[in-house]
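TL;DR need structure tokens for one chain.
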Amino acid sequence: MNRRSFLQHSAAIAGAVCLDLPAFAEKVATLGQARLKIGIISDVHLTTPDSNDYLRKAFEYFRDKGVDGVLIAGDIADWGVERQIKMLADTWYGVFPKDKAPDGRHVEKLFVYGNHDIEGQNYKSVKKFLTDEMVKNEIIAPRRAEIWKKHLKEKWMPIYIKDVKGYKFIGAHWANWDGIPGLEAFFAQHQAEFPTAKPFFYFQHMHPQGTCSAPWTWGQDDGTTTKLFSQYPNLVTFSGHSHTTLTDDRTLWQGAFTSIGTASLKYIIPFGGRENTVVFGSKEKVPSQMAQLKYLDDGKHGQVMTVYDDCITLEKHEFVNDQPLADNWVIPLPLTGSAPMSFAAREKEAKTPQFAAGDKVTVTRADGKDRYGKEQKQITVHFPTVLKKKTGVRAFDYEIQAEIMDVDTTKIVCTKRVFSQGFHLGEAQDEKEAVCVFGEADLPANRKVRFHVRPCECFGHQGEAISTDWLEPIITKKA
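>> reply
TL;DR here they are.
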């Protein structure tokens, strides 16, 4: 593509990096022939035989979408035992017998092990499910190649490369908590196979450090992959492990290469820093008036990637309600390292969420308990969710501030952030009012107070506040 063609192409794609369903359908109608279609999931965490219902549902959805392959970015077997890989294989071949769709096309398996597949048997949360016989005969780690060959009917290699309809895919199995040993040598060995004019793809379990959802997310590798991948602007990587929601636009990162988080088919883990969340893995006892949103079992996410000549599209889907999750991504091609979808570029273009005209914030009071069971008086702030179908932009979370009247001044005395209950789902599941809870310890006594609520989007834009009237002192004490 020459410079003139590139500029014309860029203008055509501009403004199309994040599209709702009608706009996406209209855009797709202009893109010509799809060159490649891949279903993408991660963190399946199979346990007992009834735990594969959503895996089957995902495979059937991908089959009906006409995919050429299915990518699973690790953590298939939650307990790290063979029977769970057999469940994967039985489910796969039940939907894609002999690796074929009903129309006879070949559908490629693009699977890798994650930490649970190799180490799950060692985790405290898992050991209670394992029998002595399972530990003796079924642990995957010492037989990873044998079990892969037996059930998935292909040779296992720590790192492998496959061709799917002329596009290269490199899969790297879990090795340790730092990164992928031998990856640089593998890339050097296969350098001649990597295209320069069109994208190629890589997938592993952990996120390349400093890329998708960074720097906030847990589960990043040691950064050696990021350094290596930065040499390849046309590389697109997929990774899981952190269970980060696809309703957060930061699960797609673009810099020297492109990195995309794959969420989870089992449960979503929200970011910390909110009144109703916690930093994953932290043992810190954070003061909070609200119960913790920890493992959101109704969050079962996946994507369908379609590659066209001029762009890559990613459709985000959730399988509990069988609905779209959020606006679909459109990544312009060719990938040159200019990063039109960087966090900074999208932050500049992001629209600010706003409450609808007439939206109100209200307050109720009741006896309650904080997160740790301490009884106290609580003040609950109630407000409507901000959805795209109502106001044009969906909120990611909300900021709530308590302001007091102090003699002839006013002061913000407490600021909290909170997720709505359905923030990780499609809009139809996020229509209930949101709440934020304050306790006596959050507010000074004998002061009039009012509450302000602002909708926020993930890149930092905040909408105008809706507020209560000034309320008489909620906490009263004798001087």
